[in-house]
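Working notes for the structural subgroup meeting. M.R. asked for a predicted model of this chain before we commit to crystallization trials. I am recording the input and output together here so anyone reviewing the notebook later can reproduce the run.

Input as submitted:
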Amino acid sequence: MAILLDDIVKRLSLRVIGDLPKNITVTGIGSLTEAKDTQISFVSNPKYVKHLAETKACAVIMNYGALKQGLPPGIKFFILDADDPYLAFAKATQLFYQIKNQRPAGKAGTPSRVNPGKTAIKDFLKLGNVDKTALIGENTTLSPGSFVGEGATIGKNCNIMGNVFIGKNVSIGDGAIIYPNVTIYDDSIIGNNCIIHAGSVIGSDGFGYARGKNGYVKIIHLGRVILEDDVELGANVTVDRGAIDFTKIGKGTKIDNLVQIAHNVIIGDNCAIAAQTGIAGSSTIGNNVIIGGQAGIAGHIRVGNGVIIAAQSGVVHNIKDNETVSGYPAFPIKYWRSSAVLFKKLPELFKRIKDIEKDRVLKK
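Returned structure, recorded in token form:
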């Protein structure tokens, strides 16, 4: 998947600062910190300008007039000027999505019901629909109605239950258990001994749109989801793919039912997250974090290692290592407990204040 940078400039009606060679090829989009030298990136928020000094992207979409005073010296990328860089980024994701999904004429491919790869259980494979390019490990079972897409790899001793959908180029390690009606979108990576319960969706698009003149422009999410070893997801968990780069859940982390994990969230190792929690995009959760049920974490938040977040808390700012927080907005739990006691006494305190004011009026 590649396109000339000059073509991107023309299709997106961008303005180039400086002279752009005609032969530069671009393979995709990356974040400022993760982009390779064959990828483009973008910046729309001034607080991320600091990353421009370290980015390896060959070109960056930005509003040059708004940011030029804060640009670092000696930049090595081409500047692609746009009045609305976020909208230009959204259109760029659609362009690369179209290129990625183009098929050469006459090569649509036909799925094979029997996988030609290494397997000792072809009778089970006949029950599912397995693309001829997929590889299935020894002693892995696929139940009726399951689907395995082009280029997917499933390890040894896995149990793939009924009506599971596994998309193109998905990688699943050894010993995985995937319960019925799970959907795993293209390019997702699932580690060894992971357990994914019924109805969960791995790799769906995040909630990303740029506002254009005629309404919202969808951002096609081009990243992936990575579940490291020994992760367990409860029923109806949704893990969105990265808009660019990836969403990742660290090894040994356990997630309860009905949890929403948005695009580009990074969750550390050995965390425990209770039901109905929502984590907004690009937030980072450290190692050994415990999150109670129905907690909400805003986007671009950093939660340190060893943090405990009480149930129904609303986290809207960064939390340092080993803190225990509660409430909305969440703050240290010892202060929250004192505040909760005072809150219950507010009617009584308010009445006392009114009585005091009344006495003052009478004494006058």
